[in-house]
Amino acid sequence: PDVCYGLVAYRDRGDAFFVRGADFTNDLGAFQSQLAQLRADGGGDKPEALNEALHTAVHRLSWRGDGTARMVVLVADAAPHLDYGSPYYDSDAAAALAKGIKLFAVGASGLEPAGEYVFRQAAQYTGGRFVFLTYANAHDPSSGPGRETVHEVRNYSVETLDALIVRLVREEMAAWPKA
Question: pTM for this structure?
Answer without folding.
Answer: 0.90
